[in-house]
Design a protein that fits this description.
By secondary structure, the chain is an alpha/beta fold. It has helices at 3-11, 16-28, 31-38, 42-56, 72-101, 110-117, 121-127, 177-180, 189-193, 210-216, 233-241, 255-260, 290-301, and strands at residues 61-62, 69-70, 103-108, 132-137, 149-154, 162-175, 196-200, 226-230, 247-250, 264-265, 271-281. The chain has 13 helices and eleven strands. Helix 3 (31-38) crosses helix 4.
Length: 302
C-alpha cells in the first residue's frame, strides 16, 4: 500500500468524532443523553450526526418519532460500528490490564534483599503503587539476566548497564550479647581472633573476610582461626543472633538488630573500601522507563 492509498483510505471514512456521536445517540435514543455521555453540548451531537448523514448520503435516524428510531441504514451502520468499537474497547482493556499486571523484577544479593530491602518494601510499594514487584536472588557475575533492576555488590562497573551506589562498604564485627558472657562489648582484636568466628564462604572473594579485618586491626593472621563457615549471609546472621559466634557486619544492613540490641558491635575497627551495593539497570530498554525511577529511589534512600 502506497502513502497515497493510505491517505485515500482515510479520506473515505467519516470522522471518528461523528461516528462516536452516532454510536452514543443510537444507544441512548436521544441526542441529549448522548451529549451527556460524551461531555459535549446537545447541538454538537446533532451537528456531528447531521455531518455523518451528509457524508454518507442517507438518513440514519427517523426524527419524526419520539424517541427517535434508527432507519434501516442506521441499523446497518450501528451493527457494524458497535461490533468494531466493542472489539476496540476489549483490546484496550486487555492492554491496560496486561500493562498493570506486568511484573517488575528486582534481582538482589540475598543479604541485601533480606536485611535492607524487605524491611523497606512497604515504602517501595507506596512509591510505585502501579508496579507489581517480584524478587529474585542469585550470583550475577555474567551477562544481564531477566530483571528490571539489579542490586549487586561490587565496584559499580558493568558493561551496558547504568549504575549508582546504594550503600558503601564499611565492615565491623558484631555478636549477640549472650556470646560476650558479661565481658566488655568493646573487645580487643586479639580477643576477637581467639573467639569463634562466623564466616561467609565466597570463593570469588568479593567480600572482606576475617583475615582482612584482623589484618586491618593489626593482628597477625598466622594463627589458625576457629571458624564456622556458611554459604549464605542470612545464615551467618541467624547464627550470630543465636549466640554462636562473632560475625562481620556491613554497615546499613543490620541496623534494626543493633537498635534492638539483638546484636552489638564489639570493636571500633572497621574496614572501608570503594566497593558497595550498586543498583543497575539497562538504560537502553525504553519500554522499561520505570527502571530509572526505581533505581533513583534506591540511591536516594540509601
Amino acid at each position: 500500500m502506497t502513502p497515497y492509498d493510505e491517505v485515500m483510505m482515510s479520506a473515505s471514512l467519516p470522522s471518528f468524532s461523528s461516528l462516536l456521536a452516532f454510536d452514543a445517540a443510537a444507544r441512548h435514543g436521544t441526542f441529549t443523553r448522548a451529549a451527556r455521555e460524551l461531555n459535549v453540548s446537545q447541538p454538537a451531537i446533532s451537528r456531528r450526526v447531521a455531518m455523518l448523514e451528509a457524508d454518507i448520503g442517507v438518513a440514519l435516524f427517523d426524527r419524526t418519532t419520539k424517541p427517535m428510531q434508527l432507519t434501516p441504514e442506521g441499523i446497518s451502520l450501528f451493527d457494524v460500528l458497535r461490533s468494531g468499537l466493542s472489539r476496540l474497547e476489549t483490546t484496550i482493556s486487555d492492554l491496560r490490564e496486561s500493562a498493570g499486571n506486568r511484573k517488575f523484577t528486582i534481582a538482589a544479593d540475598p543479604g541485601f534483599l533480606t536485611y535492607w530491602l524487605l524491611p523497606r518494601f512497604q515504602t517501595l510499594r507506596a512509591a510505585f503503587p502501579e508496579l507489581n514487584f517480584s524478587f529474585m536472588t542469585g550470583d550475577y557475575r555474567g551477562a544481564a539476566s531477566n530483571f528490571d533492576v539489579l542490586i549487586r555488590f561490587g565496584t559499580g562497573a558493568w558493561d551496558g548497564l547504568t549504575s549508582s551506589k546504594v550503600l558503601g562498604e564499611e565492615v565491623y564485627p558484631v555478636c549477640a550479647p549472650v556470646f560476650l558472657e558479661d565481658r566488655d562489648p568493646n573487645l580487643d582484636p586479639l580477643d576477637i581472633q581467639s573467639s569463634r568466628l562466623l564466616l561467609l564462604a565466597d570463593s570469588f572473594q568479593r567480600w572482606y573476610d576475617w583475615k582482612a579485618w584482623l589484618a586491618a586491626a593489626g593482628v597477625p593472621t598466622t594463627r589458625k582461626l576457629q571458624t564456622i563457615e556458611f554459604d549464605s549471609y542470612a545464615t551467618v546472621i541467624n547464627a550470630a543472633i543465636a549466640g554462636q559466634g562473632i560475625a562481620l557486619c556491613w554497615a546499613g544492613l543490620l541496623e534494626d538488630f543493633l537498635e534492638t540490641g539483638a546484636l552489638v558491635r564489639v570493636s571500633d575497627v572497621q574496614l572501608v573500601s570503594d566497593r558497595g551495593y550498586f543498583v543497575y539497570y539497562d538504560e537502553a530498554l525504553t519500554e522499561n522507563s520505570a527502571a530509572a525511577r526505581v533505581a533513583a529511589w534506591f540511591s536516594e534512600l540509601g
